[in-house]
TrEMBL record:
Endpoints of the signal sequence: none
Single GO biological process annotation from the record: methylation
A GO MF term: methyltransferase activity
Alphabetical list of InterPro entries matching this protein: Methyltransf_25 (IPR041698), SAM-dependent_MTases_sf (IPR029063)
Protein name: Methyltransferase
Record's keyword annotation contains Transferase: yes
Length: 202
């Protein structure tokens, strides 16, 4: 399935506008986002990794008084983010090689991180660590168990993968994060499997 994983950026470049239209502005992630926001220090900046169009997640974070830096590897997605949230910062970058030289008061990788292969996911935890300030929350989605799956976007195959929950816990711990909560296939969040962690003091 690696070929499908390697094609993710191109798919979002071709179909970013269609994805944004289908995604809409309805906030189905509100319970988790609000929990995350309560953990971010007042006025702290948030890093949205795989930000897409900025709707509705980054906009919701901004509405609570936080600036957001949106990172995406698709120029088309970055353009949509900039149009929707012109006061916020954008970075065109592949999350796998992200090194902004900054730390943030919170990190989000919602429905983005899970497009990476298991091998690339393992390598992301040091990326999370170097961008997270002490006590910064990290919010991301995964699958409920180890495996790979193929969805579709505009009839093109869309790759997803997940590690086992025990491995996520180990990787978080090894990289200085404490797991606050994990819910597999949360019925209160349209079946998403959601992780919330916090960066510990070094």
């Amino acid at each position: 399935m690696t070929e499908s994983a390697d094609s993710i950026i191109g798919i979002y470049r071709r179909h970013g506008a269609a994805w944004a239209k289908a995604r809409g502005t309805k906030l189905t992630e509100g319970v988790w986002l609000d929990r995350f926001i309560r953990m971010v220090r007042p006025g702290a900046s948030v890093l949205d990794i795989g930000c897409g169009s900025g709707e509705p997640i980054a906009r919701h974070v901004c509405s609570h008084g936080h600036s957001v830096t949106g990172v995406d590897a698709s120029p088309e997605m970055i353009a949509l983010f900039g149009a929707n949230l012109p006061s916020e910062t954008t970075e065109l970058a592949d999350m796998r090689s992200l090194n902004l030289g900054l730390t943030f008061g919170g990190l989000i990788a919602w429905d983005s991180f899970f497009h990476l292969t298991p091998e690339d996911q393992r390598l992301m935890f040091p990326v999370f660590r170097r961008h997270a300030a002490t006590e910064a929350p990290l919010l991301f989605t995964s699958g409920p168990a180890f495996g790979e799956a193929i969805g579709t976007l505009e009839r093109e195959p869309l790759y997803h993968a997940s590690l086992d929950p025990d491995e996520y816990r180990r990787l978080l711990n090894e990289n200085g994060f404490d797991v606050v909560a994990f819910v597999a296939e949360d019925p209160a969040c349209t079946g998403h499997s959601v992780w919330l962690a916090r960066r510990l003091a070094s």
